[in-house]
Amino acid sequence: MKRVYHILCVLTLLIALVPLCSAASTIAATNPSDAAALVYVSSYEMDPGVFYPYESGTITVHVTNAANASVVVSQPDLIEPHIKVKNTNAFNTKTTIGPGATVSYTFVVSVDATDGNYYPLFSLAPVVLGDPIHSTLTVKVDSADAKATISQKPDVFSISKKSSVNVTVINPRDDDIINVNVVASSPGAEIFPEERYIGTIPANSKAETTFQITPDTQADVLFNVTFDNGDNHRQTSVILPLNIGEDKTGAEIVVNNIESSGSGMTQTLKGDVTNNGLVDAKSVLVTVGSPATPVDPNPVYAIGNLEPDDFSSFEVTYTITGNGAVPVIVEYKDAEGNAFTKKFNVSANSNSALPGSAAANGAPAGASGQRRGMFGSFGSGVSQIPVTEIVIILIAIIALIIAWRKGLLKRLANKFRKDPLPENNDDEQED
């Protein structure tokens, strides 16, 4: 019972304080005219906060009654030659504002003005005799438009290679823009995603979004940006040309030091694959193409990853009819998973690789670098030293030394003299 009694006491106290609080928030007025004089414009807002020239929107004015008595008002209006009110018929009735209460008047307007600040006069008339209520508002008009720029892109794009492109939307206005959306389109590229929703960009700020672009041919990409300023739909755009070229920062595959051997129908092709580029070549595979047919035991040789300036040997077994060129096909990927294929035409009876044409899903094949020595082409590694030629030269030098020690060189020279001396001539002179 005590608990219930305490609760009832608290409720009674709160009920008693409500009139006191209401009285404290108002000002005592002795007559209707004094009460009307205590009505004032407490605040206002606009949507949009900053208008474009000749744009529509709304202006909302909040009117508060500070008196302790109700006040009846009528005929609210906005007066400014550049601002046209479209809903004047909405305010034909009278409005009663209670003590301490606030009412709002929303004007649908069209701002027929260029850049600058405009000052419409808000007017409201009390029903009782007395001065009308006036307040000057400020409406800002600004034609500065949001714009889109390409903030990040590669120097060149490669066919079938995915590249990242960043689009930045800049809001230079003194008010937020909302519902910002970017849609990308191109007749010559695959784009992911095709659409990015940004949402709201605050005043005097920017937002960035990323697209993945994979070109199929030389073309342009259009980024169309739509946004709302209040209830007004607007748009801007930016065009990105896809400049197609060779990726100078990617992997560059070179095949050299080719050797072919075999017996019967099966041939074995050996050589080196070198990454002469600036980034890793990943998941490198080597095989041969038509008219050669890869067969067991090594139809495809898996090298794995090749770092820049690194090389690896390979060995592929195949069959072929005739003595034509054998296409060596090298497949690899970049860090983003883009697949590339390069083809090198090599002679089955030579140790050189001639660059062929790049296959589908690969960048255009460049010239395959070959390092040639005095005795033929050779690549990197100890296996590239021309051992056979060096051994032949060493044998020839040793043979000459032996012939000189035994006098064979002198006897051979004597045969070509006009007056050859007897073989024992030197011995006679010594005697």
Structural write-up:
This protein is mainly beta and 431 residues long. It folds into four domains: 131 residues, Immunoglobulin-like (Sandwich), CATH 2.60.40; 95 residues, Immunoglobulin-like (Sandwich), CATH 2.60.40.10; 132 residues, Immunoglobulin-like, CATH 2.60.40; 45 residues, no CATH class. Helices cover 14% and strands 46% of the residues. It is built from five helices and 29 strands. Strands 23-21-25-26-27 form a five-stranded antiparallel beta sheet, with no helix packed on it. β1 and β2 form a beta hairpin. The radius of gyration is 46 Å and the shape is rod-shaped. The C terminus is likely disordered.
Which labels suit this protein?
mainly beta, Immunoglobulin-like, 4 domains, 5-stranded antiparallel sheet, 4-stranded antiparallel sheet, 5 helices, rod-shaped, disordered C terminus
Question: What is the end-to-end distance?
Answer: 158 Å
CATH class of the largest domain: Mainly Beta
Give me the CATH fold name of the largest domain.
Immunoglobulin-like
Gyration radius from CA atoms, angstroms: 46 Å
How many structural domains does the protein architecture include? 4
Beta fraction = over 45%
List how many beta strands DSSP finds: 29
The coarse silhouette is rod-shaped
